[in-house]
Amino acid sequence: MQQLIYMLDLFGVAIFAISGSLAAGKKQMDLFGVVVLATVTALGGGTVRDMILDLGPAFWVTNPTYLIVVVIAAIATFMLVRIIDLHPKALVIADAVGLAVFTIIGTEKALNADVSGFICVVMGVTTGVFGGMIRDILAGEIPLILQKEIYATASLCGAIVFYLIYSVLGLREPAVIISFAITFCLRLAAIKWDISLPRLSPNEKQK
Amino acid sequence: MQQLIYMLDLFGVAIFAISGSLAAGKKQMDLFGVVVLATVTALGGGTVRDMILDLGPAFWVTNPTYLIVVVIAAIATFMLVRIIDLHPKALVIADAVGLAVFTIIGTEKALNADVSGFICVVMGVTTGVFGGMIRDILAGEIPLILQKEIYATASLCGAIVFYLIYSVLGLREPAVIISFAITFCLRLAAIKWDISLPRLSPNEKQK
Amino acid sequence: MQQLIYMLDLFGVAIFAISGSLAAGKKQMDLFGVVVLATVTALGGGTVRDMILDLGPAFWVTNPTYLIVVVIAAIATFMLVRIIDLHPKALVIADAVGLAVFTIIGTEKALNADVSGFICVVMGVTTGVFGGMIRDILAGEIPLILQKEIYATASLCGAIVFYLIYSVLGLREPAVIISFAITFCLRLAAIKWDISLPRLSPNEKQK
Fold first, then answer.
1. Does position C149 have pLDDT exceeding 70, yes or no?
2. Secondary structure element (H or E) that encloses residue C125, with its range
3. Residues of the domain holding A14
């Protein structure tokens, strides 16, 4: 199980790195900008979490695998983006996997740091969504997730469920599986919902 | 006295949370965006201070009351903003209270961390103004306080006065009272001054 | 040698403070905004590095000389910018000195923190370029260095060379001198190159 979470974690890191790279590409950034945006998107949430909880050096300092995955994903995206025609839905589904895994990892890290359940849930959401927020700021946009409720809400529900099952009931594996399923399904349901339901004032959004 | 400062601290947190919520509302953010902007506005300055001074986990990790106050204030603002017609001056005066209290708390926390007086003053100002700066960046604006001198200057004067009276003379309660009065009055005076005195090049400001 | 590096470090801090002040001036910021932008530009990279590596309080907390240099440089720029006609090339060359020195200091600090070589190089680049990134965000711009590859690339090459010579060969002084020369020369060469080589899609850049 631990092994599976670690693999999914690296998968999430790669996915978020690709999403950061694509955002950088839209802004005509060069290779270095692409790598920077990939890095903050993929590692930013966990870094902020580690700083807030004062967990010592950021998690990717002691395990460079994370950074290596990011750099490879960013360079591959930079080179392949004009060749391979990535199906938009593939990225969205992969992003939902990353969000679900990051939420679980963030919540569990906070649990191990022995803070209150409320803070554990906040740290789970922080790990899941902060990277994307920094990406949007660096790309000169108002963070999208501040305008699309259900992204963070999916993470919030997953974090609460994970905390309740793991901390209160003491069942780790069911906590991981159920939390993952909830975040993932809520997020995918939200995408469908987003497509069908227009916003109240779409032309005022991007003032 | 300690009790009074704590109450004013929570009051300042609630006020800054409301100010963050209103900024989020202007940008058509949803409930989650409102809560995030409320959180960074209210807790961002103190969090950055705790990270720079390496004071362990951020202050709101060990005392969740802060975060609870933020969430309640944000949700209440989100729900009531269309019903209650908040007098703009009420918010401005409350904001000045928050600025004055945050400045005192930040300066004192740095004093307790045993750093030089210069750093204490810088940390007082950081605690007072950084939350608002992050709020503006997330909302896609150039931070207003970088363009309105007297906001931070009021905090600066309050921090210097608090440091001098408390650290040099050893009088804590007079330091709190006089520092509070100076920041608060300077800020209110500045608002009047801002209204009457136009800027040199107002139409170039928001390029 | 240590003394020389420290002098160059303070020189780099002053230069980056001036660059931050000029960016603030362009945005019609007042004196406080100028000082804040000067501070984040000059000290931001090192502060983020110290937080990520968990090196205790930020480096300028225990040695206020840095902050004093920043404030003096910022106020001097604010007052003199209309009087003295600074040659643009002087600033660019001085900036290259700062970038080269910051890269060496960041890489060495990470080396002393006993992290892997990969992380050392990343921390060298972070120290060199992060301050400028935060400056641009606060000034409401997409960070320029994300769009101008050779700025960070110069820092990257300098960091790699410093790490290899110092860590693998154990020669500190040659490492400093060669790393400095590489970053500095690459950066100056890049400026010439930037002038002569137009970007692929210049009018889409600042979308």
1. no
2. helix C117-138
3. 2-196
The per-residue pLDDT for C150 is 77
Average pLDDT, chain B: 83
Residue A92 CA to residue A105 CA, distance in Å, equals 20
Give me A179's structure tokens. Answer: 């939390």
Does A153 contact B64 at a Cβ distance shorter than 8 Å?
A: no
Question: Do residues B74 and B21 make contact, with C-beta atoms less than 8 angstroms apart?
Answer: yes
CA distances from B194 to B147, B189, C33 (A): 12, 9, 16
**Does A201 map to a domain?**
no
In a domain? residue C206: no
Flag if B61 and A153 touch (Cβ within 8 Å): no
The rounded distance, in Å, linking the Cα atoms of A10 and A5 is 9
The H-or-E segment that residue A49 falls in is: helix A31-53
**Is residue B76 included in any domain, yes or no?**
yes
Percentage of chain C with pLDDT > 90?
37
The DSSP-derived string for B3-26 is HHHHHHHHHHHHHHHHHHHHHHHH
Q: Is it the case that residue B171 has pLDDT exceeding 70?
A: yes
Q: What CA–CA distances, in Å, run from C95 to B43, C7, C8, C188?
A: 34, 15, 11, 10
- The one-letter code for the residue type at B195 is I
Secondary structure string (H, E, C) spanning B101-132: HHHHHHHHHHHHCCCCHHHHHHHHHHHHHHHH
Q: Does the distance separating the beta carbons of A149 and B33 come in below 8 Å?
A: yes
Domain count, chain B: 1
Which chain A residue is nearest to residue C54, measuring alpha carbons? A57
**Sign of the alpha-carbon dihedral angle for A59, A63, A65, A68:** positive
Q: What is the pLDDT of residues C71-128, one digit of tens each?
A: 999 989 888 877 766 666 777 788 888 889 999 999 999 998 889 999 999 999 999 9
Interface ipTM > 0.95: no
B-C interface: how many C-beta pairs under 8 angstroms? 70
Residues 135-154 of B with CB under 8 A from A: 137-140
B204 lies in some domain: no
Determine the average pLDDT of the residues in A90-103.
85
Which residue of chain A comes nearest to C205, CA vs CA?
A28
Mean pLDDT of A98-116: 91
